[in-house]
Design brief:
The structure is a single chain. By secondary structure, this protein is an alpha+beta fold. Helices cover about 40% and strands about 20% of the residues. It has a domain of about 160 residues: Jelly Rolls. The chain contains twelve helices and eleven strands. The strands form two sheets. Strands 1-2-9-4-7-10 form a six-stranded antiparallel beta sheet, with helices on one face. Helix 4 runs antiparallel to helix 5 and helix 6 packs across helix 8. The longest helix has 18 residues. It is globular, with a radius of gyration of 19 Å.
Length: about 280
């Protein structure tokens, strides 16, 4: 399994893109056939060969297609089908970035959505092909990042900030350490205005985004520890749950797994094709 993650080198692009990532499974790779994507408030552009099939299982609702596609924010855990060889080159956008870039126009900026794309139309270049970008990613990650920076530069020249995107950017900087009820006072606006702008820019509610971010931190914390070293009572306190049963209910709702089951299978959950993987 080939797998790398790198940040954009261009500072302007880094305002909108969190990272580039690459993952490939060949015939000889040994990995779990049905890994799961953790809930994620970010949007990903996934570049794949035109004839390569993809399948996302969202609570029994199968989303299938071929080639490059958008993976929009999702608050459900998604099961993937990795039984066959595959290759993906991905672009992970910051939360709300598509709004500023104007890429959300005409697209379903809603939760749990997958949408196929035509690369030549998206990048306004008839010569751009996913296969060429993937070949570079296979050969050299640094050169691939340079190539993606160059490709996105013209697209990002259209980026615009308005009062909604500016408010959301400030909100995201506070969301991890501030209660939702206190955000309005800190940002000098009404709670209703804040909620409306946040949903308009991100497609999510403040509560949904905060819960996803909290879950990501929790799962990363668990992944870094051996099962025998996990103290669920201590973790419940550390991550702001009222007690251990509350934590158990939260993980069961978000992942479909009890803490004990997650501890056994945590190597099979990944942070959207570019984070933790088995």
């Amino acid at each position: 399994m080939i797998h790398w993650i790198q940040s954009p080198k261009n500072k302007h692009i880094a305002q909108y893109v969190e990272c580039y990532w690459f993952i490939e499974k060949d015939m000889n790779s040994s990995s779990y056939d049905f890994p799961k994507l953790n809930p994620d408030p970010s949007c990903h552009l996934i570049l794949s060969p035109p004839s390569q099939a993809y399948q996302y299982d969202i609570k029994g609702d199968f989303r299938c297609g071929e080639g490059s596609h958008w993976l929009f924010p999702h608050h459900h855990t998604i099961e993937l089908d990795h039984t066959n060889p595959f290759v993906h080159l991905g672009i992970k956008f910051h939360v709300g970035a598509l709004y500023s870039l104007g890429l959300g126009e005409g697209m379903p900026l809603k939760q749990d959505q997958i949408q196929s794309i035509h690369m030549a139309s998206l990048f306004e270049s008839p010569d751009i092909k996913a296969f060429d970008l993937i070949e570079m990613a296979r050969m050299n990650s640094d050169s691939s990042c340079d190539q993606l920076d160059s490709l996105l530069s013209s697209l990002f020249q259209k980026a615009k900030e308005d009062k909604h995107s500016e408010l959301v950017r400030k909100t995201l900087a506070l969301l991890a350490n501030t209660s939702i009820s206190a955000l309005g006072d800190k940002l000098h606006c009404s709670q209703r205005t804040l909620e409306r702008s946040f949903n308009r820019v991100t497609g999510l509610t403040l509560k949904q985004c905060q819960a996803m971010n909290k879950l990501e931190l929790l799962l990363e914390y668990l992944y870094q520890r051996k099962s025998k070293d996990i103290d669920w009572v201590e973790i419940a306190f550390e991550f702001g749950f009222s007690d251990q049963p509350h934590l158990i209910r939260h993980l069961k709702k978000q992942l479909g797994l009890t803490p004990k089951s997650y501890a056994q299978e945590r190597g099979f959950t990944i942070d959207v094709y570019g984070g933790i993987s088995s």
